[in-house]
Amino acid sequence: SKPVSEVSAYHESVVLDMSDQPMKIDSLADIQFTMKIPEDDTGIVQFSNIKGELVTISLDRRKQEVTVDRSQSGDVSFHESFIDLHIAPYELGESTRLRVLLDVNSIELFLDNGALVITELIFPSVPFNMISTKPSPEEVEIFSLPSIWATEMAN
């Protein structure tokens, strides 16, 4: 499973360096990178905002699973199970390709060209605009995406 091809038509800019972390990003973004995770280690991707809210994605090679923790992602008070960890079994190799579509209220994660897809709803008080990773990926493409919503409603 992959994002619809039309998403690529909206790519506006590219950032290729994540040596300074966390790195500021637009709150609407298509982020693509390969993460090399040592054996028996865990790769981490975090999206955060100025309020300290965050979503943590863990890629655990020892357990062979991907975990999403949105317990600190903003408004989580509306249902007790919203803060539960979401865990998906996945055979992680040394190198994993990630593509993340970040929106104001959702994160879509595509691993290894869609071999595993996870979609998460989020309700931060302000949009996520920072990303950090461990380990740092070697090559990163970050594309800003325009909103599909008009800035002013038609009369």
Description:
This protein is mostly beta strands and 155 residues long. The chain contains no helices and eleven strands. The protein has strands at residues 23-24, 29-36, 42-48, 54-60, 65-72, 86-89, 95-102, 106-111, 116-121, 130-134, 140-144. It starts with 22 loop residues before the first strand and ends in an 11-residue tail after the last strand. The mean pLDDT is 86.
Q: What is the N-to-C order of secondary-structure elements (H for helix, E for strand)?
A: EEEEEEEEEEE
Largest sheet: 6 strands, antiparallel
Strands across the major sheet, in which order?
A: 1-10-3-4-5-6
Helix content: under 10%
Q: Tell me the overall shape.
A: globular
Provide a compact summary of the structure.
With 155 residues, the protein is mainly β.
Descriptive terms for the model:
0% helix; five-stranded antiparallel beta sheet; 11 strands; 155 residues; mainly beta; six-stranded antiparallel beta sheet
Question: Topology, please?
Answer:
Layout: E1 23-24, E2 29-36, E3 42-48, E4 54-60, E5 65-72, E6 86-89, E7 95-102, E8 106-111, E9 116-121, E10 130-134, E11 140-144
Antiparallel strand pairs: 1-10, 2-7, 2-11, 3-4, 3-10, 4-5, 5-6, 7-8, 8-9
